[in-house]
Design goal:
Blueprint lengths: L16 E6 L3 H11 L4 E7 L3 H10 L4 E3 L2 H5 L5 E4 L3 H13 L3 E4 L7 H14 L3 E3 L7 H12 L7 E8 L11 H4 L3 H17 L4 E10 L2 E2 L10 E8 L4 E8 L7 E9 L2 E7 L7 E7 L2 E6 L8 H11 L9 H13 L3
Parallel strand pairs: 1-2, 1-4, 2-3, 4-5, 5-6, 7-11
Antiparallel strand pairs: 7-12, 8-9, 8-10, 10-11, 12-13, 13-14, 14-15
Helix pairs in contact: 1-2, 1-9, 4-5, 5-10, 6-8, 8-10
């Protein structure tokens, strides 16, 4: 595996990338900053339907051209494109870029359904292009340490996991609340991170059953047609009998901005990541032994753009299609089952 992030490959093996950015709202610009900090890229082109957002992005990349569409971006002979657009557009835009021979870093979800995600992965494989999606919580110091401990076997077989992501606000863009555009509510927005973290830490085990409860405005979602869920609980039973519980929400009366945690239990101890004082960005990771605890990681940790920077470093080192992209399909299949599709 090619080194990335703070272990960048030898300069002789690196070429300077020409990247395009499709969608430069707050997340798109934040990922642009992280990628620029690698020193491996030139932002060649930017496209966004909002002139104000495009102007903000130009401040980060003054030499970038302003384009009106994805096709215009791709005409700039790019090595890669970063996509941060509404969820309904992701699969089609990713496939179009990949078919033009351009690598892709896309915001989650990669698609609204497992079939959409599979189509994107298939396009990447055919084109031999590096594809990844922004499962950014994998790149926190805390989750990396937790996964290492779990995968080392030090805790013994993990038999239970609890993952939570409650956002006391909720998205501020209307398309998030349209099922046709978003593909779903808080599960598609937040729960997808929880599913990915659970499967990633446990080595992507087979899931034998999924049970879920979805709510909108305090009522079962089935009673609110045309709406998306704002509260969800799901339980995954693994083939080996372990239980994984997930809960996520928008606009919950949480008493703070956010409640985020991922906790795993084995017969020899437990490990947990949790946010600090309601923060969306600051996390502490701990290891539990009986009534004692050991701190594994604490803030500050500038993790938000690491997934994007990692993709850029791997692309600069010449990586093509990574078969691990099939794991995105595994996550999407669980999301489908939570939605009972």
């Amino acid at each position: 595996m090619t080194q990335a992030l703070d272990g960048t490959p030898p300069m002789a093996s690196i070429k300077r990338l020409r990247l395009g950015f499709l969608g430069v709202g707050w997340i798109g610009r934040h990922r642009m900053q992280a990628i620029l900090r690698t020193g491996l890229v030139e932002v060649a082109a930017i496209a966004d339907p909002s002139p104000e957002m495009a102007v903000e992005a130009k401040r980060l990349a003054p030499d970038a051209g302003l384009m009106r569409s994805l096709d215009e971006l791709l005409d700039e002979k790019l090595d890669g494109v970063v996509i941060a657009t509404p969820s309904a557009l992701h699969a089609e835009q990713c496939i179009h870029a990949l078919e033009r021979g351009v690598a892709v870093f896309c915001q989650k979800p990669l698609g609204r359904t497992a079939s959409e995600v599979q189509a994107v992965v298939d396009a990447a494989r055919t084109a031999d292009q590096l594809l990844t999606t922004d499962f950014s919580y994998r790149f926190t110091d805390g989750m990396r340490r937790i996964r290492h401990i779990i995968r080392s076997g030090e805790l013994g077989p993990i038999y239970a996991a609890d993952l939570v992501f409650h956002n006391a606000y909720g998205p501020d863009k209307s398309w998030f609340y349209d099922p046709a555009l978003s593909g779903g509510g808080c599960v598609m927005d937040l729960g997808v991170h929880l599913v990915d973290l659970a499967l990633w830490c446990l080595g992507f085990p087979r899931v034998s059953s999924v049970t879920s409860w979805l709510f909108a405005g305090g009522e079962p979602l089935r009673q609110r047609p045309g709406q998306v869920e704002d509260y969800a609980i799901a339980t995954m039973e693994l083939d080996t009998g372990e239980a994984v519980q997930l809960a996520c929400s928008w606009r919950l009366h949480a008493g703070c901005d956010a409640i985020i945690s991922a906790t795993f239990y084995g017969p020899n101890g437990g490990v947990s990541l949790r946010n600090v004082n309601g923060s969306f960005y600051d996390f502490i990771a701990e290891r539990y032994r009986g009534t004692s605890r050991e701190t594994l990681a604490t803030p500050p940790d500038d993790w938000g753009g690491r997934a994007a920077a990692d993709w850029a470093a791997r692309l600069a080192a010449g990586e093509g299609f990574d078969p691990e992209a099939e794991r995105f399909v595994d996550v999407a299949r669980i999301i489908d089952r939570i939605y009972k599709q």
